[in-house]
Amino acid sequence: MTLPEWARFLLAGIALCVFMAFSAVALSRAGRSPYWAIFVVIPYFFIAMIWLFAFCRWPKADKIGT
Known about the structure:
By secondary structure, the protein is mostly helical. It is built from three helices and no strands. The protein has helices at residues 5-29, 45-55, 59-65.
């Protein structure tokens, strides 16, 4: 049994929205703007964003250390 085309698009859209929401929560907890989660929808750019996010300065960690 296969889903109709509209149901596949609906499920993909819901999954993308959930992934963006989780990314926004993680970014806001790290002290970044949650609007950076918009870049989740660009293929292959998200991998570069994770790499940059890992090696950038962490504002909340700097506040804890001082």
